[in-house]
Amino acid sequence: MLDVAAGDLQVAFAGEVLAGGGPAAPEASEPLFLEVDTCHIDAQRIATKLGKYMRFLRRRVTDVDGQQRAMWRTRWEHPNSHPGQVLHPPLLLAFHQIGARSPEASFERVADLTRPHWAGRWAAEEFHDYNDKIPLLFTTIDLLTEHGPAGAAFRRAGRQHFQTLPNAIGNARRDTALARSHARYRERARQYEAEQAAAREAKRPTCGECGTKFTDDHWKYTQYRDAAYDPHRHLSGPLRPNGRRPRPSRKRSRQAPGLPTLRIPPRR
Fold first, then answer.
1. Residue 37 and residue 17: Cα distance in Å, rounded?
2. Is the same domain home to 9 and 142?
3. Cystine design at 101: which of 39, 225, 236, 258 (Cβ 3.0–4.6 Å)?
4. Domain range holding 51?
């Protein structure tokens, strides 16, 4: 069982082979499919399994809310942190050197045969886009024994170095590129807001006597219809009579006081 968040890994050691593969962490924060090989199965058979995984992950069903979802998502939770992308859980190939086959050679052969299922597309000359791809990982029991499940004992197909499990599953270049893109967007938004504020300040009226800029309330008052009848509307607050601006007059009702309101029914 593999828990990506806690780094807890229980794998099959000598004499305890996990047959058939399957979800290694159905209750973990992120599911991970695990295939353990004792170096007896040829690479072609393992590659065939990867094609079956892809068909399973792409299968869609109608969920309880009536929405179409990937069938595996109705059983295991998996964060979809990239809107507009289809993210699949990773598949870990764990080799235990019992047979005569080389784990490294077997993994290289499997990766070569299954490239369409895991290879990313170079996007924007900054990172690989793994939309609708399976993260294919490789490790051995010896590496897990040496480095531990939380150490750099995992290698992702297409990469030449070993990493920790979260780093091997993740896409650091994409995260960095998106962070830079978001920073540029925030900077453009800040500049736009500053330009809009400067343009508004350039239009702010000033006092006809002392040149003091009007406050927001005074500026808003000068735009009222009643301000057209105020002879001191061009003066700032301290220079106005009594230091205050006149209150806008309210419309008086044309109905005589004490009389009921006359309502005329509409014509039909």
1. 8
2. yes
3. 39
4. 2-170
